[in-house]
């Protein structure tokens, strides 16, 4: 009889050394959990009903075990709490987070899994279940505590050394130790040792985390084809393994296959729709692919998910409003009006949610101005523009993004010269930043509505194809149509000059072709030196001058 008593005393001691936090909006359940924990030997137990006091408690107190209900009524749920605690690094590696729930829907489980709770407990919970599940986790925590402490201190070499020492001593935790070793080697940039860890595991057994780690190393070593193939196989075998989708999308983007990357993220968000950062990535990727409808829906979900998330940001509201503004511009029918109204509503919500940011209020007015113009309510647009002009005279004080947005609005309302002058100032100010210069170039080149921009780009592609096939007249006709939409577009004008010069070389008696070339070059007289097409402009100018001699 003495052995069981000793074991019970040992278990009680293990429970008693730890600090607990129970989060549940029902008082009876909180009290019941405290009673069960005490009967297991726990003593230091804090009870809270909602997210705010839970996060606040973790901010100022060390917690070893969190038992959190998923559904906490109005406001943040258990997933949001776990997300925030991970983001703010308020949980140590050795801390345990158990999600308690009576709901087992795939959407809930997938959403919570994104932030990796240590276990799920399904209501109703009895003492035996709690002692068994939690006792096993506490035993593992105790055995691996020295390693986790070093990882928390970011002393990765020492953590690796402790993992190596523990492998022969703690065979029951071999999977955890090997997984941690692979991650630590990767963090240190020791890719050769990391891949050896994953290869050793995969040679014995196909495990999802090892296949993912192996693929991560392949990507880091620029073996994109192998990585993508491996990740596709992983997803086919385990369609609910969400990290694989994110890594596959990253690999496809690196291979310059953004449309395929978007499809992968669309599949991922179907499986797990409650991951804000993935919805945001999908929205950004869809925008870069000019799939504005998909982008709008992903931005809507991002904004909705942000209501209780630590990752909430006014940039999400602005991005959705921009998107809706682009889609609705020029569409005064029922659908266009509804999209514009949604954008107005989104901007209003943003200002209420982030009331103390003056820059946001200014950016909101800039977008409202463009929305009114897009709905052909020019007088309202002009009134807003007049009210904000004084605040936008100094690009240094309002910031880059606000200035770019203002330039876009000036173009939309017919103040092209003012917009170009503003962009010229920005080009001088950010002349050493290639990414910013590309944004400025893009706006200078295509200061038109989204729909017109897409049509012009399509014509540009068609014109280049006709030129490359040798059909110069067709190519010239296509570029003429494109230039009717965007007369000052550098690449379109220079493409047309190139075609006309080629025509002239086949018929040198037609001097009209050279005059037309000069006309197109004159459109680019104010092209900034920093522009990517400037050297091409100078080269074609010299060539035209030589042909005129």
TrEMBL record:
Residues 19-138 form the Response regulatory domain. The modification 4-aspartylphosphate is found at residue 69. InterPro entries: CheY-like_superfamily, Sig_transdc_resp-reg_receiver, ST_Response_Regulator, TPR-like_helical_dom_sf, TPR_rpt. The keyword Ubl conjugation does not apply. Keywords: Phosphoprotein, TPR repeat. The keyword Phosphoprotein applies. SUPFAM superfamilies: CheY-like, TPR-like. PANTHER family: TWO-COMPONENT RESPONSE REGULATOR, TWO-COMPONENT RESPONSE REGULATOR ARR22. This is Tetratricopeptide repeat-containing protein. It comes from Marinobacter antarcticus. The lineage of its organism: Bacteria, Pseudomonadati, Pseudomonadota, Gammaproteobacteria, Pseudomonadales.
């Amino acid at each position: 009889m003495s052995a069981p008593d000793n074991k019970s005393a040992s278990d009680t001691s293990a429970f008693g050394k730890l600090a607990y936090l129970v989060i549940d909006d029902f008082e009876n359940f909180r009290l019941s959990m405290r009673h069960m924990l005490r009967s297991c030997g726990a003593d230091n137990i804090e009870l809270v009903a909602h997210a705010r006091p839970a996060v606040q408690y973790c901010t100022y107190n060390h917690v070893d075990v969190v038992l959190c209900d998923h559904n906490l009524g109005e406001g943040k749920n258990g997933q949001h709490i776990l997300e925030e605690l991970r983001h703010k690094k308020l949980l140590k590696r050795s801390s345990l987070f158990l999600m308690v729930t009576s709901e087992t829907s795939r959407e809930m489980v997938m959403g919570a899994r994104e932030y990796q709770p240590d276990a799920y407990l399904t209501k109703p919970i009895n003492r035996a279940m709690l002692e068994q599940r939690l006792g096993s986790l506490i035993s593992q925590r105790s055995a691996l505590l020295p390693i986790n402490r070093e990882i928390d201190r970011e002393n990765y070499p020492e953590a690796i050394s402790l993992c190596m020492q523990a492998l022969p001593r703690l065979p029951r935790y071999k999977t955890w130790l090997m997984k941690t070793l692979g991650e630590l080697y990767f963090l240190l940039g020791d890719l050769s040792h990391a891949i050896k860890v994953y290869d050793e595991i995969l040679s014995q057994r196909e495990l999802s985390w090892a296949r993912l780690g192996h693929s991560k190393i392949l990507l880091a070593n620029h073996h994109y084809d192998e990585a993508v193939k491996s990740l596709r196989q992983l997803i086919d075998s385990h369609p609910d393994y969400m990290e694989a989708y994110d890594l596959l999308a990253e690999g496809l983007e690196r291979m310059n296959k953004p449309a395929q990357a978007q499809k992968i993220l669309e599949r991922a968000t179907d499986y797990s729709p409650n991951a804000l950062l993935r919805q945001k990535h999908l929205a950004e990727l869809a925008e870069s692919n000019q799939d504005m409808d998909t982008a709008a829906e992903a931005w809507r979900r991002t904004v909705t998910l942000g209501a209780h998330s630590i990752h909430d940001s006014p940039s999400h509201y602005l991005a959705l409003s921009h998107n809706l503004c682009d889609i609705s511009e020029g569409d005064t029918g029922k659908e266009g009006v509804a999209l514009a109204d949604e954008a107005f509503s989104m901007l209003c919500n943003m200002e209420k949610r982030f009331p103390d940011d003056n820059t946001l209020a200014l950016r909101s007015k800039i977008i409202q101005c463009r929305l009114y113009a897009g709905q052909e309510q020019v007088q309202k647009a002009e009134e807003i523009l007049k009210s904000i002009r004084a605040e936008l005279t100094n690009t240094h004080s309002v910031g880059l993004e606000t200035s770019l947005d203002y330039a876009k609005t000036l173009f939309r309302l017919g103040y092209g010269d003012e917009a170009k002058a503003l962009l010229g100032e920005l080009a001088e100010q950010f002349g050493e930043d290639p990414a910013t210069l590309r944004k400025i170039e893009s706006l200078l080149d295509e200061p038109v509505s989204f729909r017109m921009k897409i049509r012009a780009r399509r014509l540009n592609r068609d014109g280049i194809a006709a030129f490359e096939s040798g059909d110069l007249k067709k190519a010239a006709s296509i570029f003429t149509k494109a230039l009717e939409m965007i007369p000052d577009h550098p690449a379109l004008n220079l493409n047309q000059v190139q075609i006309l010069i080629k025509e002239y070389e086949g018929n040198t008696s037609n001097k009209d072709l050279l005059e037309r070339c000069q006309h197109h070059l004159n459109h680019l007289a104010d092209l900034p030196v920093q522009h990517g097409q400037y050297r091409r402009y100078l080269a074609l100018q010299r060539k035209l001058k030589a042909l005129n001699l």
